[in-house]
Amino acid sequence: MRRVGIVAKARLERAASHLAEIAAWLEARKIQPVFDPETAALARSAGATARYDIAEPDDLPRQVEMMVVLGGDGTLLGTAGRIAQAKSDIPILGVNFGSLGFLTEVTLPEIFSSLESAVNGTAQTEARMMLHVAVDAGGSRIVDRIVLNDVVVTQGALSRIIELSVSVDGEFMMRVKADGLIIASPTGTTAYNLSAGGPIVHPRVDGLTITPIAPHTLTNRPVVVPGSSEIRIQPLMQDEQIEVFATFDGQALLRLKKDHVVLVRRADRPLRLIRASARGYFQVLREKLKWGEG
Known about the structure:
Order of helices and strands: EHEHEHEHEHEEEEEEEHEEEEEEEH
Oligomer: single chain
Helix content: 10-25%
Largest sheet: 7 strands, mixed
Number of strands: 19
CATH superfamily of the largest domain: Probable inorganic polyphosphate/atp-NAD kinase, domain 1
């Protein structure tokens, strides 16, 4: 490994001193650290004086062989999306500076032991399904992107309940009246899906989860469909004043119109997520969800 990208959450001052330490650790092993501009500025704010290689966020995944992310799950989601858009399959190591961190599970004391195993090739790496989402309008594609966690179609702040038509692989599934609908990958089932009452799905399960948000009919329950499925969602709006939005990993927002169609399927390539070798998946769940604590 010759070049490693480093990204920190914007304005995360607690990470500043760690950035210089990680860079020095890599350089001591003849590995070039590469920062995005904001992360480099954050490192310099802690007194770092080295001249680091810098690349724009969208170009960074093309220039390195691994990414290290310092922050919370939101920072990792943004980086995962950039890796996917770059059509790269480099692994990503997430260091948790957030409050929960299902994805950024490496703790501060584990940084250098995790880096050591990552650069010498002994780290555990999991392939996490990503989602390809497209939005079509009148025969034209207006959105085409890759996300790790979920696609959410939801009401606006002032809207009442919305109605959506949902099909799976061309077969009509349901018309649902609800506050919204979540399409989650297995990784994304511990995000918004969990808060909405959806199931936790193990990352190795090849399935997509469809979860209504506060459905008007209580028999509209979460459903897990095969990972090979294509899910089609269309808003049913009689009034153009009704606000319906689609969000993609919580990173982008699009207002939908009645002729818009949201299509979700498994992406062509997964994300390679470096795991903290000391903990298994169920231990992470126990720690994050406080299972078994009085």
